[in-house]
């Protein structure tokens, strides 16, 4: 380890003041402490925000949800409003990490977690995300688990969060509060593509806090679900995942929201799949045809060419599961 200071705060103004002075926020600590132990991250000042009153989960007008940023993953997963209103979120949370980690980790921290690229966590390896300009060991290294969508010459690491995939499908908004006040950011704008600056992963400004995550109201009835494909059945990150949300009325798909995880440098919104579904009648052939659009634009690396086919099959299967479970 290395020396750092630690301050615990109990109210939001005190947190923001500490953040303005350069403090690094920590809540459950399930990501940051690991990275500090490995010296991948070396914050000088930690600000413990765990006691802030940001854990509420409540309904919004019209049938949406507001999730406090410090709500625990386990609490959110079993909350009746989440479980009944947006099962895709409950399922994504329950398929994440381990029960012990879900009891500790906050929703905001889940969105802020960093990639599981092994080269990123190995301080002896070249990594543009850890040290800009150093190069990317994954490009010529073992890249079976890396991304096929949204990659750049600088970085091909996948985004690790299951929750973020469900929130991307649902067009959620991340609410931030900082020195310049409050601002909402669409989740698709909050998580950044690597481009030439993979060290910047989130559209969060110095000193800003995530206060809540808002899922907008969706037309009802709404069927949704999350499928995660991984090398082992528990405590493993996704090789590929699919979040599917369908609104079907009078036998026609009126709205479709689909996103994939484990394949993109950010959760990947499958717009072409969504477009293929809307206005059509649910049918086995429709799921197959729509899923053919899932891997459009994929750029496989040496060891992860299988992910394009896996993505197509994962999306098709989850469309079928959700589409036939309405
Ligand atoms: Fe670093 Fe990204 Fe390359 Fe992994 S893929 S080594 S995180 S630059």
From TrEMBL:
The keyword Oxidoreductase applies. Keywords: Oxidoreductase. Residues 1-220 form the FAD-binding PCMH-type domain. SUPFAM superfamilies: CO dehydrogenase flavoprotein C-terminal domain-like, FAD-binding/transporter-associated domain-like. InterPro entries: CO_DH_flav_C (IPR005107), CO_DH_flav_C_dom_sf (IPR036683), Diverse_Substr_Oxidored (IPR051312), FAD-bd_PCMH (IPR016166), FAD-bd_PCMH-like_sf (IPR036318), FAD-bd_PCMH_sub1 (IPR016167), FAD-bd_PCMH_sub2 (IPR016169), Mopterin_DH_FAD-bd (IPR002346). GO terms for molecular function: FAD binding; oxidoreductase activity. It holds the Pfam family FAD_binding_5. PANTHER family: OXIDOREDUCTASE, XANTHINE DEHYDROGENASE SUBUNIT C-RELATED. This is Carbon-monoxide dehydrogenase medium subunit. It comes from Virgisporangium aurantiacum. The lineage of its organism: Bacteria, Bacillati, Actinomycetota, Actinomycetes, Micromonosporales.
